[in-house]
Design goal:
Chain A folds into two domains: 9-38, no CATH class; 69-142. Helix content of chain A is 77%, strand content 0%. Chain A is built from six helices and no strands. Chain A has helices at 3-22, 26-35, 40-82, 86-103, 108-111, 118-131. In chain A, helix 3 (40-82) packs across helix 6 (118-131). Chain B has 181 residues and is an all-alpha fold. Chain B folds into two domains: 1-108, no CATH class; 110-181, Orthogonal Bundle (Arc Repressor Mutant, subunit A), CATH 1.10.10. Chain B contains nine helices and no strands. The chains are: A mainly alpha (142), B mainly alpha (181).
């Protein structure tokens, strides 16, 4: 017998296991399963638990993916705003403060935050992007 | 339709299987997991994960059931294949000697890959004490068709089906007992 034929026969036998189980239903299936030591109630529990675990894992994976995408997007957005020259950054900050003063969308403390260097300015603009006050181009939202 | 809706529909399709279908899938996972080092529940969960992440259209419970059954078989195969790779890797690492790359053992094809099928069939043959099932196995190993087997062994169709049934149940019994992997 060739190795390929052996592997094929093994696969055939595994398929036949499914055929055998599939040929039974209802009470006959329960009795057969009990005969090989598999309780029907226990199998139904296994199914429900595995399904629940798979759904939880899937949701968790989706959440992680969304978080990674958001982080990646934020990184890209900040990269853009950080690349502006200092004059443009200052103009954006001035526009934000002016808008905030008119709309009271920002606390006085935040509006009057001391900006000593470009690093402080970057952090301020980063916070404004995160808060949704401006987009990644520095344009005011709403 | 967005992705979350798709996934909830796919999850609903798993809930929609009837009790017999659920029992069959859980039992199949239990049986074929023997000897893999994994639990049947793990195989089942992995199969569900494949279904939830699949693009295959949701057609109906029978088709969902078939998808899951095949997924369980594929996951089982991957576990064995992974184990073989690990065994082979560890085997090579276990004898680090000078001129390792010239060792004929290293040059040889993966021995496990060529013995899996024959070993399984040999195990089954050795564990079987039903002579008619042994005859059937031998004929099937020679690639004989059902008609050829019936002619060669002078069995009618009823007899052939009865021996097939005994063989299937024997395979299930031996696998569930962990004697056949």
């Amino acid at each position: 017998m060739t190795d390929d034929r052996s592997l094929h026969l093994k696969q055939q036998l595994l398929d036949e296991i499914w055929e055998e189980i599939g040929s039974l239903e209802g009470k006959e299936l329960d009795e057969y399963l009990a005969g090989i030591g598999l309780g029907s109630d226990s199998l139904l529990e296994n199914y429900a638990e595995a399904l629940n675990a798979a759904c939880v894992a899937s949701k968790r994976a989706r959440f992680e993916k969304a978080r990674r995408e958001l982080r990646h997007k934020s990184d890209a957005d900040f990269g853009k705003i950080f690349s502006f020259d200092l004059a443009k950054k200052k103009a954006i900050m001035a526009a934000i403060r002016d808008h905030a003063a008119r709309t009271n969308e920002m606390t006085i403390a935040a509006r009057n935050q001391k900006i000593e260097d470009e690093g402080d300015l970057d952090r301020f603009l980063e916070a404004c992007v995160c808060l949704g006050l401006i987009d990644s181009e520095g344009n005011l939202k709403g | 339709m967005n992705k979350p809706f798709q996934e909830s529909d796919r999850a609903a399709a798993l809930v929609a299987l009837n009790e017999d279908q659920r029992k069959r899938l859980a039992a199949y996972a239990q049986i074929v997991s023997r000897g893999t080092g994994s639990e049947g529940d793990d195989l089942l969960q992995e199969a569900f994960a494949r279904w939830l992440g699949s693009d295959k259209p949701i057609e109906g419970p029978e088709q969902t059931c078939t998808f899951l059954r095949r997924a369980i078989g594929s996951i089982r195969f991957n576990i064995f294949r992974h184990a073989k790779v690990v065994r082979r890797y560890e085997g090579i690492r276990a004898f680090p000697e000078e001129g390792d790359d010239e060792d004929p053992l290293d040059q040889a094809a993966d021995p496990a890959a060529s013995t899996e099928g024959p070993l399984f069939v040999q195990q089954l043959y050795d564990l079987c004490d039903d002579q008619e099932v042994q005859l059937l196995l031998t004929a099937q190993a020679d690639n004989a068709t059902p008609a050829q087997i019936q002619a060669e062994l002078a069995w009618d169709e009823k007899k052939y089906k009865a021996v097939q049934k005994r063989k299937r149940r024997l395979v299930i019994q031996l696998m569930i007992e962990g004697k056949l992997t």
